[in-house]
Design brief:
heterodimer, A: alpha/beta, 4-stranded antiparallel β-sheet, 7 helices, 10 strands, B: about 800 residues
């Protein structure tokens, strides 16, 4: 197995402090995610799944430990560099979709490209392709409020992949969807993975966790287990150490 | 579409999705900035535009002051001016200016009386004034025997000559003597002569220059680099030398060097008014800032999730802040034209407060580049200032919690205390503005109810300047005055007629030093001084003045009889005290006079001014070519106006057409300035009150919606609707209480400024302040009424489900 992990966490801890108490959301977590891998993070409520994903997505910083993304020590980066990495390297899919109500479907998808400063024609081409990929081209001019939950999540997926990020992070992507829509979104994520995307998904639904190549279990902020659940696709470099 | 254009599109869309909030913010901005801009146009007109000079920091005024009294500054006597000009070193030059009334004749219509100035002939060169047409005065014009020349103001040229450019070079008659018009001043060149006036050279004969007739207004141009202090010290050395050289006239006097802009703005009191108005403008703008900031903070709290999402997909803090600031700039863009409309309306209202004879104020209160610049800066600064905090808060959102399911509601953007602090500040500013405004109303009420000393409602006034050409000697003046009084006495309805050189509520006349027989003026003391007016026998009757002791002026007080004087009560008490003044002799203008009467005090200059010592001298003993006539009647005074004009035409058909005024109108005219300031303050305070009420409503309303869950839990636990409402009202009461404290501090800070402009005796009272605070607390509670009502009617289950 190559050591060229896309993501590598080394003894990462996250502590939330108040005047009276220190709470360890994560405690000395070691994790590596390889290019092309589909990893699910599972665990009970409050075990630190979302905190872990937030750190992976550079929405939050570890209290201690190292975070290497594509070999760079990103835990040392300032807010501007982190924002730059978010827009170039990471795609997010949230449980509550987090589409901006004032923007149309295509504008929501276009948003990360706008922050990248990409030219208008290139943006248009990429947005068209992303919407096509998730089957939402026909709703491009609609507002999020005019879409069903499943459709909104498809748009959120399109927004996450439009910048062609190295790492896709999904936080309970089916949490707000009924089983039919949930299955469709998972199918979409599976297709993205099949086409070479690196995916890290937080879920507490074992059905969806099983769709990943590797499932990481968290308990009380610590890595409880890590197990391969499916054959590693050819695009992946290997499994976790 | 470029990212910038896209951002504009987002900003537009974001406001169209919150139209009520956008409209409130735009109207608030327009109202606040509009009113502030209008006030700024007044202030800049009064402080800046009246001194159209590229380097106003070099223009000063030299005022003579008595050493031991804090009297108003006085002019210089011609002899002093010549010495000052020769000896002072801190100045590029000094210029003297004397107010004058001219008779302008250029046809067969008898001519017109024109106000104007005699100015030292080198003034145009010194102040680099280049008339719009022709030339200005040159030093040679001031030489004795030089041909008589005049420069017309733009307004006079337009009114009298219909803007005929061929008048330059034309010969006209001024005061009966041929005079050539050599130049026309530009429309905005009213530095030396206000519109409708004319300028002629001041000629001083050094050999015969008076040292006691303090009628010259002296201006100076500081040398480059010289400071006001240096000029002051320089003049003190000059004054010291002159006091030794001319102890009788110059000892006991000092000179104060002041900025011309301060004096043109109306002196200390008017400057204080302008500063107070500027402070009020800043207060209103701060209230606007607080209001809009509150709106934006509430909005940004509602947009936490959106901002977090933008950050999650790669928006940097700078990009997010830029987006928010762009949205705010859009507000500014929309508010700006509205603000200009408001400003225009308020300014037009202000102009209705300006009396017709001050119509030229419209020219200085103009909407020029600096005023529009002020509006732009005020709008942008307000919006950017208030946008910075929400933008900063939005960029520091806790992304993880904001992006969670249910996150972003009531999260960290906009801590409640920030909004509450802003509301307290608004209330404090509004209360202090309101109380200041009420103090000014009270001050004006006191002024207007002040006893003018005589019945002003039944007196008519007219003034005439006898042309030297046809009235060359004192005998001519005496003869004219005698005939005029006889002719005016025949006007139907005239009960008493008298003459006076300077009628009350106009130019008060020069201050003259006098000597008291038997008293020696110590070297470090200045000689006593008083306003000296020459009046005819029936003056006291015509005005209805109360004679306290002695007698009035009798027919027997002729030129050849013993010179006499009547003094006012202030002069008698100040210089003679308990000993009594009757029978004492004083020397004024070269001759000894016996005091034969003491007349009750009356405000001579304006109802706002303190009483100054006054000497009344019989016209027959000291005739003057400037003549005013006062007529007492039991009818409407203006009904006599045509009779007065006819009588004067009968006397001398060639005399210029006379203006005839009611004394009451003259008195009112003196109060237009403070009345304007009072109106402006009143408007500002009302706007402030309205905005503060809106601010309190916004804060309480937002707070109530944020506490919906708390109220629901309380209701679920058994709280009655009234108890819930009380929670909301208590918050409003607390805000008001803190607002009152802030207002108290501000009011104390403003006190020194107020004291300079309020009429004596007007001041803060605990009762008044308490009353205003109670009113504001009431307003705050009313503003909290709707949110309290909403809280009372909150649906516990609905609110709990929403969470």
């Amino acid at each position: 197995m190559s050591d060229q992990a896309l993501v590598r966490l080394e003894k990462v801890s996250k502590v939330f402090e108040t005047e009276l108490v220190q709470t360890y959301a994560l405690s000395e977590v070691d994790l590596a995610i390889y290019k092309g891998e589909f990893v699910s993070i599972a665990g009970p409520s409050g075990c630190g799944k979302t905190t872990l994903l937030s750190i992976l997505g550079l929405l939050d910083s570890p209290s201690s430990g190292r975070y290497l993304l594509e070999g760079n020590s990103v835990h040392e980066f300032g807010s501007t560099a982190r924002a730059r990495l978010r827009r170039s390297t990471i795609g997010f899919i949230f449980q509550s979709f987090n589409l901006i109500g004032e923007l149309s479907v295509s504008e929501n998808v276009e948003l990360p490209l706008t922050y990248q400063g990409m030219g208008a024609s290139e943006r248009k081409k990429r947005v068209g392709a992303a919407l096509e990929r998730v089957g939402m081209s026909h709703r491009a001019s609609h507002r999020p409020s005019q879409l069903s939950g499943g459709q909104q999540q498809r748009v959120a997926v399109a927004r996450a992949v439009v910048g062609d990020p190295a790492l896709l992070l999904a936080d309970e992507p089916t949490g707000n969807l009924d089983s039919e829509n949930g299955a469709q979104v998972m199918e979409l994520l599976g297709e993205l993975h099949q086409s070479g995307a690196t995916l890290c998904m937080v879920t507490h639904d074992p059905r969806y966790a099983r769709l990943a190549q590797r499932s990481v279990d968290l308990l009380d902020g610590q890595l409880a287990s890590s197990a391969e659940v499916a054959a590693v696709p050819s695009a992946a470099s290997g499994a976790a150490p | 579409m470029s990212p910038f254009v896209l951002s504009i599109r987002w900003a537009l869309r974001s406001w169209t999705r919150a139209p009520f909030l956008a409209a409130t913010a735009i109207l608030t901005l327009a109202l606040g900035v509009g009113v502030s801009t209008a006030v700024y146009s007044v202030v800049s007109g009064a402080l800046l535009n009246v001194v159209p000079w590229s380097d106003p920091d070099r223009l000063v005024v030299l005022e003579a002051r008595r050493l031991e009294e804090s009297t108003q500054g006085q002019g210089a006597a011609p002899g002093m001016f010549l010495d000052w000009r020769e000896q002072a070193r801190a100045f590029e030059g000094l210029a003297a200016l004397q107010y004058w009334r001219f008779n302008l004749t250029d046809g067969d219509d008898g001519g017109v009386a024109v106000e104007g100035r005699l100015v030292s002939a080198d003034s145009f060169d010194l102040f680099e004034i280049k008339p719009a047409m022709g030339r200005g005065l040159v030093p040679a014009d001031g030489e004795p025997g030089a041909p008589r020349v005049a420069v017309l103001s733009h307004g006079l040229w337009r009114r009298r000559y219909g803007e005929d450019s061929s008048v330059v070079g034309r010969q006209i008659q001024i005061d009966g003597e041929p005079t050539t018009i050599v130049g026309i001043l530009g429309e905005e060149q009213f530095f030396l002569a206000p519109p409708d006036q004319l300028v002629m050279p001041l000629r001083i004969d050094p050999a015969a220059a008076s040292r006691t007739d303090r009628s010259l207004f002296v201006m100076g141009l500081l040398r480059t680099g010289a400071t006001l202090d240096q000029a002051q010290r320089d003049m003190e050395l000059v004054i010291e030398r002159l006091a030794t050289e001319y102890p009788a006239s110059d000892a006991g006097w000092s000179v104060r060097v002041r900025w011309l802009s301060d004096v043109f703005a109306g002196g200390d009191r008017a400057t204080a008014s302008m500063l107070l108005l500027l402070a009020a403008v800043i207060f209103v703008l701060l209230i606007v800032c607080a209001n809009v900031a509150n709106l934006l903070l509430a909005r940004s709290a509602a947009r936490i999730k959106e901002m977090a999402t933008r950050a999650a997909v790669g928006g940097s803090r700078g990009q997010l802040a830029r987006q928010l600031l762009l949205e705010n700039a859009l507000l500014a863009l929309l508010a700006f034209p509205l603000a200009l409309l408001v400003a225009r309306g308020v300014r037009d209202f202000f102009l209705t407060q300006v009396p017709p004879y001050m119509g030229w104020m419209a020219m200085v209160m103009r909407f020029d580049l600096p005023v529009i610049g002020f509006a732009i800066v005020a709008t942008l600064a307000t919006v950017l200032l208030v946008g910075v905090v929400p933008a900063w808060q939005a960029s520091r959102v806790d992304l993880q919690s904001a992006l969670k399911e249910g996150g972003g509601r009531g999260a960290s953007a906009g801590r409640p205390w920030v909004r509450q602090l802003l509301a307290v500040a608004q209330l404090g500013l509004a209360i202090s503005l309101l109380s200041t405004s009420l103090l000014m109303v009270e001050s004006m009420r006191r002024v207007q109810t002040r006893d003018p000393g005589f019945d002003v409602e039944r007196v008519l006034v007219t003034e005439v300047q006898l042309p030297k050409a046809r009235y060359p000697s004192e005998e001519h003046w005496r003869e004219f005055e005698r005939r005029a009084i006889a002719e005016l006495s025949r006007v139907q309805g005239a009960d008493a007629v008298a003459s006076v050189d300077f009628p009350p509520y106009g130019f008060p006349g020069p201050l003259a030093a006098f000597e008291i027989e038997g008293e020696v003026t110590l070297p470090d003391k200045s000689a006593p001084s008083a306003l000296v007016h020459t009046v005819s026998t029936q003056y006291l009757d015509a005005l209805g003045l109360d004679l306290r002791r002695g007698r009035g002026i009798a027919d027997s007080d002729e030129g050849s009889s013993v010179p006499i004087a009547i003094v006012n009560r202030t002069l008698a008490e100040r210089y003679f005290g308990q000993e009594g003044s009757l029978g004492r002799r004083i020397r004024v203008a070269g001759s000894w006079r016996e005091i034969v009467g003491v007349v009750e005090d009356y405000p001579n200059r304006s109802l706002r001014d303190p009483i100054e010592p006054l000497l009344l001298i019989p016209f027959s003993q000291r005739p003057h070519p400037s003549l005013g006539f006062v007529l007492r009647t039991s009818r409407d005074p203006l009904a006599l106006a045509s009779g007065v004009r006819a009588a004067m035409r009968q006397l001398d058909p060639q005399l210029p057409t006379l203006d005839v005024f009611e004394m009451e109108q003259r008195m009112e005219n003196q109060l237009w300035g403070p009345r304007l300031v009072q109106s402006v303050m009143w408007i500002l305070s009302q706007v402030a009150l309205l905005l503060a009420a809106m601010g309190v409503y916004a804060v309480i309303s937002y707070g109530t919606s944020q506490r919906a869950q708390e109220f629901a839990i309380r209701a679920a636990l058994g709280a009655e609707p009234g108890q819930v409402a009380l929670l909301v009202l208590r918050q409003a009461a607390l805000l008001s209480a803190f607002g009152v404290l802030v207002a108290l501090g501000l009011s104390i800070a403003l006190s020194p400024l107020l004291a300079r402009m309020l009429y004596a005796g007007t001041g803060w009272s605990v009762l008044q302040f308490g009353g205003i605070a109670a009113v504001l607390a009431f307003v705050a509670l009313v503003a909290a009424g709707e949110p309290a009502w909403r809280a009372m009617r909150s649906d516990p289950m609905g609110a709990l489900r929403a969470e």
